[in-house]
Amino acid sequence: MSLRTLVIIPTYNERENLPLITSRLFEAFPEANLLVVDDGSPDGTGELADKMAIDDERVHTLHRSGKLGLGSAYIQGFQWGLERGYEVLVEMDADGSHPASVLPSLVAAIEPADRPGSTALAIGSRWTPGGTVVDWPRSREALSRGANLYARIALGIDVRDATAGFRAYRADVLKAMDLGSVNSYGYCFQIDMALRVLSGGHRVVEIPIEFRDRELGESKMSRAIVLEAMWKVTQWGVERRSRQLLRAVTHR
Question: pTM of the full predicted structure?
Answer without folding.
Answer: 0.90
